[in-house]
UniProtKB/TrEMBL annotation:
The protein's name in its UniProt record: Translation factor GUF1 homolog, mitochondrial
UniProt-annotated binding residues for GTP: 66-73, 131-135, 185-188
CDD domains assigned to the protein according to its UniProt record, in alphabetical order: EF4_II, EF4_III, LepA, lepA_C
UniProt keyword Nucleotide-binding, yes or no: yes
PROSITE patterns assigned: G_TR_1, G_TR_2
Topology term for the membrane: Peripheral membrane protein
Assigned EC number: 3.6.5.n1
Length: 663
């Protein structure tokens, strides 16, 4: 069915009058219409999709996993082209990276699905691809994507070889018992060393050379081999009911991802484990116990294509009037309202690792900031939101992120998509504080209190111990940097637990670090001491009692709460001195002299003095010999300054805080 331009125009007017001003959305509102986009390069849209022709043995669900920049999204582009989902075009670059921040930074931050239609040995196959992010902060995305798959392509750069995230991602797939197709990418590079990578894959993962496919995702070389391997080596989805009975078995689906469409609410990505689902069905969320009417089901190819029915084994999306991101809980099981089922195992919720305060630059913008955070978290449910207040910055929020890049990306999206200029305070990690005394335990609601903001630390007298979060870091470096790496690890309080060669020249280290030490500068320093060759990945390693102290900064005898931090006892003096010096550099002089001091439990460990402005009050005394008059004027000035010093305040403005907080 195609629409005449007249009926298109009237439809557009109709949907515009309903408040829908998205030029694509008016077409997608009606599931019976065939999608049309301004860029109609997509042959899929020329026909209506009916997935009933793909029996379960013709379906493959797979992810592409790899270290950062090893070419996942570029391979996805070639797969989309080869299967005719998009037209081959030099302009196709990381098509599945849809967010502006992804395009600008050239990284994937959100996993994306795409359905490909591939004819193999005369039979049509439906291949559901999930392109995953590579950066350590987004491991959680990879983990849940893999739960919707039966296999994974492990991509390794032919020049860089196996890196820290290659290992982490391999083990994620391995733990789920997924078949892995090892692919060496970028063989077109002059510096490519595919044979070295073959040796690494063999040493580390027991992968034999005959299993490995060598490609250039950029040029398309060898990509057809990857398509064949997907069909041959990845099994079709396992379903308990068997394909014939699919129609009689009640629907059971795993909600593995979601995003928020401002016109249509939550779009939930679902892997259909049993039965089938179509628009008009009433579904139940087993976690929230809420019921919804399904308005549309479809597949991403690469944008949403509505279809009449999603069948057992398939991966697609459901739109069911879910208004909030919290309605679509990742890992939830969806079923038909009248046929409740046993829940699927689901996932552990994402754990925020890094917390920071977010304040509006101007308090009048507080509600705009609140609104923007609510909207952004609809698309990113892994952000933890708490309210916060600061004496200098006013009302704001304390947000929890999966890592520093995640925090950066969130802040960039606030700026770009909502035009909000927020002040982000220094990142810190969640500490666990053990309090003593039955009365205190009752007051804090438990023996262990989680402290997200160091200035909210319970009084020292009732603290039994402070525990800090640890991570197990994996570092891969050429062995010539061995000495530099050992010193670097020690500087960041790392404890080495393992060391082994992954090929003739490169070493893998496992080091336990306090998370607080590595969140800001460690990665940059690692890159710098290893001339860019070192790679780093980390995973949660629990909590350990740390010899930590609370560092307070006083400006003219007033504590600046935003600068309060928990620091290891061996580093606290350096940190105290550094903060005092930075403040001195950025604070303005006053009519009176004042001090900037760093203190542990009110014991001062560092001090800087900011001198007063000097005004020559004796300049007006004409006679150079009137010493008595000069003395009188100088004494008066001294008294005035002493009075000011007592009553005067030193404003620590937001821009000064920002400069000091940036490490
Ligand atoms: N020479 C060459 N460059 C490639 C090839 N494949 C990818 N690239 C380049 O490598 C860079 C990273 O590619 P991406 O596809 O964005 O890598 P990615 O793994 O998706 O990156 P993240 O999502 O950030 O982890 C881009 O500049 C690509 O053009 C290849 O086969 N040969």
């Amino acid at each position: 069915m195609t629409l005449s331009s007249k009926s298109r125009a009237s439809l557009f007017r109709y949907y515009s009058s309903c408040g829908c001003n998205n030029k694509y959305a008016f077409i997608t509102y009606n599931p019976t219409l065939i999608f049309s986009r301004t860029k109609t390069s997509n042959p899929v849209y020329k026909r209506k999709l009916d997935l009933s022709e793909y029996s379960i043995d013709k379906i493959r669900n797979f992810s592409i996993i790899a270290h950062v920049d090893h070419g996942k999204s570029t391979l996805a582009d070639r797969l989309l082209e080869l299967t005719g989902v998009i037209k081959a075009d030099k302009a196709n670059k990381q098509i599945l990276d849809k967010l502006q921040v992804e395009k600008e930074r050239g990284i994937t931050v959100k996993a994306q699905t795409a359905s490909l239609f591939y004819e193999y040995k005369g039979k049509k196959h439906l291949l559901n691809l999930i392109d995953t992010p590579g950066h350590v902060d987004f491991h959680y995305e990879v983990k849940r994507s893999l739960a919707a798959c039966q296999g994974a392509i492990l991509l390794v750069d032919a020049n860089e070889g196996v890196q820290a995230q290659t290992l982490a991602n391999f083990y994620l797939a391995f733990e789920l018992d997924l078949p892995i197709i090892p692919v060496i990418n970028k063989i077109d590079l002059k510096v490519a060393k595919p044979e070295v990578v073959v040796q690494q894959l063999n040493t580390l993962f027991d992968i034999t050379p005959d299993q490995i496919i060598k490609i250039s995702a950029k040029l398309g070389t060898g990509v057809d081999e990857v398509l064949k391997a997907i069909v041959e080596r990845i099994p079709c989805p396992q379903v308990t009911s068997g394909s014939d009975k699919a129609t009689q078995v009640p629907f059971k689906g795993l909600l593995f991802d979601s995003h928020y469409d401002r016109f249509r609410g939550v779009v939930a990505s679902v892997a259909v484990k049993e039965g089938q689902i179509s628009a008009g069905d009433k579904i139940l969320s087993l976690q929230t116990k809420k019921k919804y009417d399904v308005q549309e089901v479809g597949v991403m190819s690469p944008d949403g294509v509505p279809i009449s029915r999603l069948y057992e084994g398939q991966v697609g999306y459901i739109i069911a009037n879910m208004k909030k991101a919290k309605d679509a809980l990742i890992g939830d099981t969806l079923c038909l309202a009248e046929h409740p089922v046993d829940p699927l195992p689901g996932f552990k919720p994402a754990q925020a690792m890094v917390f920071a305060g977010l304040f509006p630059a101007d308090q009048s913008e507080f509600s705009s900031l609140q609104d923007a955070i609510t909207k952004l978290t609809l698309n990113d449910s892994s952000v933890e939101v708490n309210s916060d207040h600061s004496a200098a910055l006013g009302q704001g929020f304390r947000l929890g992120f999966l890592g520093l890049l995640h925090m950066d990306v969130f802040e960039q999206r606030l700026r770009q998509e909502f035009h909000i200029n927020a002040i982000v305070t220094a990142p810190n990690v969640p500490y666990k504080v053990k309090v003593k005394g039955a009365k205190n335990i009752k007051f804090y609601g438990g023996e262990v209190v989680t402290v997200l903001n160091p200035c909210h630390l319970p009084p020292l007298s009732i603290i039994e111990e402070i525990q800090e979060p640890l991570v197990l870091g994996t570092i891969i470096v050429p062995d010539c940097y061995l000495g530099d790496l050992v010193s670097l690890s020690m500087k960041y309080r790392g404890v080495q637990v393992e060391q082994s060669y992954i090929d003739d020249t490169r070493i893998m280290f496992k080091v336990v670090f306090p998370l607080n030490e590595i969140i800001v500068t460690f990665f940059d320093e690692l890159k710098s001491v290893t001339s860019g060759y070192g790679s780093f990945d980390y995973e949660d390693y629990g909590y350990k009692t740390g010899n930590l102290v609370k560092l307070d900064i006083y400006v003219h005898n007033v504590i600046i709460e935003e600068l309060t931090s928990l620091v290891h006892v061996t580093k606290v003096e350096d940190r105290g001195r550094e903060l005092c010096l930075k403040l001195k550099e950025h604070l303005s002089r006053q009519q009176f002299e004042y001090t900037i001091r760093a203190a542990i439990n009110q014991r001062f460990i560092a001090k800087e003095t900011v001198k007063a402005y000097r005004k020559d009050v004796t300049a007006r005394v004409k006679s150079g010999h009137d010493m008595a008059r000069k003395k009188l004027l100088l004494d008066r000035q001294k008294e005035g300054k002493a009075r000011l010093r007592l009553a005067g305040k030193v404003p620590v403005k937001k821009d000064v805080l920002m400069k000091v907080l940036r490490k």
